Every structure is written in structure tokens, then in C-alpha cells.
Amino acid sequence: MLSAAVFAVSGCGGFLDTCYNINQTDEINSRNAGSIWSFAYAFYAPLGHGLQSIDYNVFATVSDECQQTSPSSEALYFNRGVINESVNPLFTRYQDCYEGIRAANFFLDYVADGKGEALLALNRDIVTDEYNYKRDVQSLNWFIAEAHIAKAYYYSELIRMFGGVPIVENFDPSTEELVSRSSYDACVEYIVEEIDNWKNSLALNWDEYVDREGRFTYGVALAIKARTLLYAASPLNNPDNDRTRWEEALKAAGDVINSGMYSLAPDYDMFSGEDPLSSPEAIYIVRTYVSSDPEKANYPISTPGGQSGACPTQNIVDAYEYVDTPDEKNPYLNRDPRFYASIVYNGAEWNGRIIAEGPSETDDMANTNASRTGYYLRKFLTDELNLEQDQTAQHNWIAYRYAEVLLNYAEAANELYGPDVVPTGQQLSARQALQMVRDRASTSLPQVTASSTDEFREVLKHERQVELAFEDHRYWDLLRWKDAEDVLNRPVQGVRISKVNGVYSYTVVDVAERKFNEANYRLPFLRSEIENSKGTLVQNPGY
């Protein structure tokens, strides 16, 4: 089944022209039925993608997954724990989310009370053109449901970053009324209500409407709900460990599984080029423009046009288990196959050659702007693009996928019932759900023997670290688990590589310090936003 893909653009004239002027008079708009579709697609435009989360690169550099090669980067504000009310690189995401909410509210107001159907019928013979008219009306009804899901999605992004935020329900440009900040729990309730009220009005898929690929579907709504409720049940947001919250998270993830709409892809290496579009695992995809930007940002500096960029750390490399006896002379042999699909290492074949990072070799780590960790990013990138000749490739960001849902489910099931109980009404135990993910990677991975809830929780955390590496989960997982003050106050590590008589040796070294403060569990609102709110927006503690 072809999964949904969203076309994310910046500015006008991309896959979706979202620059329709919403300030046109009602008289002009009423003469143009096409304005419905312009306004509908507009609430999709602010959807971000993880290939340009920070420093025009992956967000992994703010956690222990990657080290940014550049000595000057926005990631450093996170790495050094100096995010404050004057400096928050993610505040543009705050603005994007509210732009999406504003666009959804505007669209819903524009077509409310039958105005949309009337506009579709204007200057049209709905008898002779009955088929197309009904098709347009159905699309309009789907769009209305999608606008509500879009609001749920944007609020889920906002509360992950900031905790409770203002809930703006209506679009009314004539009023200057300011909305007070809602609590985190109230925001979660709102998100769930939007999804529950509108999920059954969404299309199941776009198999019969290829031109509508990229719009939200029933399965996407379920996945948004599952992630939102997992976060709400986690220690950061559930300090009293309310069992009810875990039950809600379990059911939400179980609903995705029980729908039977998705399955794990046969191969983990599915993140580059057009591969995600044919994956049975992809629930929602953001399809970016054709470019070589991710490759330019992350190819080794020794590859013409490459800038090294986000370089995986020894911390994440150590998380990949061995599927066979380790080789003392080569630590990269016999690893979990997900390692080879995600990371470029010394001796790996990449860009049509063998990476050689020893002294005086092509990729010598002493070279200016070479990787500081000894590793380069592979996941998401198309191999062997000629950057000097501006060769490009399609990039697709998988925002939600089935493996995450299985791990969400496993986490909630374990917290409620331990590793091996199949909850009533569900199909899997926590261990079975997690094992499905591991078996897809390799059936040769070590057996999971954890028997208690506490032991299995650590196994689950490890599995998420590996399975979801570099996909914009690690930092937020550490926050919601309340593990960030421990993990993100440790140095990130890499290797120092030497070569004697043709044999490489590797020494693990600290590459950079990390600093995380208690206040950083929530991001700060910018001071200007606080001032503009005239006191209705309350800053997060510690800023």
C-alpha cells in the first residue's frame, strides 16, 4: 500500500502553492471556487521535516547521537545548556505550528455553514457534472476533517517542546483578543478530542486518489494520538505514574496495530530516495523538494562538496549490538544491520570508495572539518551524488512509522503488565511487540532476557535508541523519561584512529562536553512573545 506523502515547500511555486492571499476580499474569493483548495492546502505548508530541524540538518546534534562538525552552530545552545528567553533556535518551529493552526482555523471558517458546498456549486451545472461535483464535495469534507487533525498535530508538536500552550480555536482577524496559556493536560485533552471527533471522517488511504497523496488519513490520526498519549503517560508529564494514562497510551497504540493497515518493512534500510513511498511501514511521510542539501550537509569533507555536518558519536555506535562474536581487530564487524544502514565508519564503502580515516589517509581526522568522532551519517542520504555537478535526489522524511508504534505499545504494555502479559483486547505482549522490531533488524540479535518491568524498561529504551536513531526521537525521549539530566550531562565520545603495519586501532576519546539544566525539560518562550502577549503567556520555570 502506498503511504501518504506531504510536499513541504518554502515560499511559493513549489509542489503546493500555499501563497494564496487570504487577505483578498470576500467578494473576490466568492468568485473563485479554487480558493477552497488553496486555503485547504495552506494548513499543510508549515509541516516541518527532520532533515532541516537545526542548522539545516538533523536534530540529532542536540542529543548524544551526533556531534556537529562546525565550531559555530545552533546546536551548541542545546549542547551547552544555554537556551534562554533570548535564544531558542526552535522558536521558529513554534511560529510555524501556530501558522498551521491559523491556516486550519481560517479554512474551517471559510467553508463553514455550507459556504464551501455553495462555492463548489457556483457557476457549475451540478447535474451534468454530477460526478466531479460529488468528488469535490467529498474532498472538501475530507479536508474539513484534515484541518482538525492538522491542529491536533501542530499542538502535539508544541506541547512536546513547551508544555502547555495557548489553544487558539477560531480565526478572527478583526479581534485582538489574546488567549491565555492552557495546561499541558488540557492541551492533550484537546488533541485527543480533535482526533476522536474527526478520525472517522478521514479517508482510509489515497489508493484511488493518487492526486491526493500527502493528505492526512485515518491511520495518521491514530499515530498522532498514540505518540501524544505516550508522552502524556511518561514520567515528565505523569510524575505520579497515573495508571490511567498508560492505559490510554496502550489503547491508542493498540488501535494502530489492530487496524491492520501497516506492517514492518522487510528491510530496515528504507530511508533514502523514493524507498519510503513504497514502504508498508510508513504511516506519514513528508516529501521535501528534490535537492542535494542533506548530502552537502553530511557527506565527508573529503568528498567534494561535503561538509561533514552531523557526525554520529561513539555513544550511539556502542548501542548497536553484535550479532556474532566481536572481532578484536575490527569493532565494526558483525554488528546489528541497522548500524550499517545508518552510520559510515572507517573502512566502510561510501561515495564509491573506502573511507580511510587513519593518519595521512584521504579522510584523516586531522583534516580541517573532518569528523570529530570518526563517523559520518548515512541514514537518509543518497549515496554517490556528484555534488560538484549539482546532482540531486528526492528526500522523504518518515514522520510516523509502524516500528515506532510497536515500541510505543511495548512501553505502555510493560508499564502496565510487565513484559509478557497480553493485555485484554490486544494482540501482543510488550516483549512480542519489541521482538518484532528486533527480528526485522536481524534474527541473530541476542535474546532479550529481561523479566521484570524495570529490566524491560531499560531494554525498551535501548531499542528505541537504535531503531529510531537520528529520526528526531532521542532528545525528546530523554526528556519525557526524565533521563536527560543524566545522559545529556555526559561527554559525547568518538574514536582516535591510528594505523600500524596496515592494521587500524581505535581509542575511545571524549569529543565534547554536554550540559543540560533542569529547566531545559521545557523550552523557553522568547521574551518578545511574552511581552507581546501582554501577560497572557506565562514563561516556563527557570528562564
Q: Mind explaining what this structure looks like?
A:
This protein has a domain at 1-54 and 90-214: Serine Threonine Protein Phosphatase 5, Tetratricopeptide repeat (Alpha Horseshoe), CATH 1.25.40. 37% of the residues lie in helices and 9% in strands. It is built from 18 helices and 11 strands. The strands form 5 sheets. It has a 3-stranded mixed beta sheet with strand order 1-3-9. A two-stranded antiparallel ribbon has the order 2-4. Helix 13 packs antiparallel against helix 15. Mean pLDDT is 93; it is low at 1-25.
Question: Over all CA atoms, what is the radius of gyration?
Answer: 24 Å
Query: What count of helical segments does DSSP give?
Result: 18
Please indicate the percent range of residues in DSSP E strands (runs of 2 or more): 5-15%
Q: How many beta-strand segments?
A: 11
CATH topology of the domain at 1-54 and 90-214: Serine Threonine Protein Phosphatase 5, Tetratricopeptide repeat
Major sheet characteristics: 3 strands, mixed
Backbone shape:
globular
CATH class of the domain at 1-54 and 90-214: Mainly Alpha
Element order: H for helix, E for strand = EHHEHHHHHHHEHEHHEEEEEHHHHHEEH
Distance between the termini: 47 Å
Class from secondary-structure proportions: mainly alpha
Which CATH architecture of the domain at 1-54 and 90-214?
Alpha Horseshoe
Average pLDDT confidence is: 93
- The proportion of residues forming helix, as a percent range, comes to 25-40%
> In what order do the strands lie side by side in the largest sheet?
1-3-9
Unreliable residue runs? 1-25
